[in-house]
Specification:
globular, 8 helices, mainly alpha, single chain
Length: 218
């Protein structure tokens, strides 16, 4: 919720301030990015160090690593490079399909890319939910969104700043409203750590409504 508020503020600032300019929105976005990255660092400290016991799963046990740290780092780097190439291929393929099928780019960026790009993660979340491990399923689902909103998005803004490309958190009314409502309903469902098929149907219905809205918006 904090991340969504921080991402919405630049849009509200630009819409409400009579003397706001593109430079002021850009500066605000960069300051917000620094704040979000600081919060993400504190979250990692909270999760991994000071309050790690709160995030431990029931019956968890430590296993000895199956590979050396150096090999793991090399494997991570290679996998990251390969994923970046695959992501580039996916984006170009979707762009070609969008031109042929007349699909709005906004729909592709907000609906299709996250859906296909995180297919493996979605499958894992559904699989563990089927095994009645809802805490893990919620952690997988919410963790990825949190990382993108609090770490990836502000990092992209700061990297763009470093290379001289202006990038802000100014979004349209549909995007900001959708993000806020999505976080609101997700928090409502996940607050008790339990779920049922009706709540799942409601989430899918909400996703379908947003998807149709973005499809027609373009």
């Amino acid at each position: 919720l904090l991340a969504v508020i921080a991402l919405i503020i630049p849009t509200v600032f630009h819409a409400s301030a009579t003397n706001s300019s593109d430079d002021s929105v850009l500066q605000l976005s960069r300051i917000v990015s620094l704040i979000l990255l600081a919060i993400y660092g504190l979250f990692l400290l909270f999760q991994l160090k000071t309050h790690a016991s709160l995030f431990a799963t029931d019956g968890a046990h430590h296993e000895s690593p199956s590979m050396e740290k150096r090999d793991a780092v090399i494997l991570l780097v290679v996998a990251t490079i390969l994923v970046s190439f695959m992501a580039e291929i996916l984006v170009h393929s979707l762009e070609d399909a969008a031109e042929e099928l007349h699909i709005p780019h906004l729909f592709i960026g907000i609906i299709l890319l996250p859906l296909f790009g995180n297919a493996a993660e979605h499958f894992t979340a559904v699989t563990v939910a089927g095994k009645n491990k809802m805490d893990l399923s919620f952690a997988i689902s919410v963790g990825s969104s949190t990382q993108i909103a609090v770490f990836i998005a502000p990092l992209i803004v700061l990297v763009s700043w470093a290379i001289g490309v202006p990038l802000t958190f100014e979004f349209g009314l549909l995007e900001t409203t959708s993000a806020f409502l999505a976080v609101l309903i997700a928090n409502t469902v996940a607050v008790d750590g339990k779920s049922n098929w009706l709540e799942g149907a409601m989430l899918l219905a909400t996703y379908a409504v947003l998807a149709v809205a973005f499809l027609m918006y373009g």
